[in-house]
Amino acid sequence: MRMVRRVLIIDLDVHQGDGTADIFAHDTSVFTLSLHSEKNYPVRKKASTLDVPLEDGMEDDEYLSILEDTLKRVLTTFKADLVFFNAGVDPHHDDRLGRLALSDEGLRKREELVFKLVRNEGLPLAGVLGGGYSYNLRLLVNRHSNLYRVAAKYL
Within a domain: residue 2? Predict the structure, then answer.
């Protein structure tokens, strides 16, 4: 039986992962990674293990490049037994509360990238839905569904 001793939390909601950062601030067995809009809520950020503040209006290619470089580095340096992934869709360019500019395709590629890198390390991955603030429920559900579409490829 393999025990979980070290956990990586990948928070890709547009808002900084202040809750998990605060909860695990003094727990070195949990690595909290937050890629988020620098100027978005919360105003006073809690320190994650690694915060990557992003500029307003950042689009797919730059975002995905930063995510890939960062996640590869974290997976190499922090040897996790389990990974949690907050797949917030509020980095979308049409999101009411986001300040980034990812497309639907960019969000799908983001999910693909996280799953590919984590699963290539042989790590179990639990993905959860995160922020998304749109009045168009059909579009919002479609964006959230990418998490499950991508996860199904890794079963």
Answer: no
Q: Which residue has the tokens 């037994």?
A: 81
pLDDT above 60: residue 1 = no
- pTM, entire model: 0.95
- Within 10 A of 46 (CB to CB), how many other CB atoms are there? 18
What SS3 class is residue 84?
Answer: strand
Number of structural domains found in the chain:
1
Q: Where residue 131 sits, what CATH number does that domain have?
A: 3.40.800.20
Range of the domain at 85: 7-152
Q: For 4-23, how does the pLDDT look when each residue is reduced to its tens digit (9 = 90+)?
A: 999 999 999 999 999 999 99
DSSP line for 10-72? EE-SSS--HHHHHHTTT-TTEEEEEEEETTSSPSSPPPPSEEEEE-TT--HHHHHHHHHHHHH
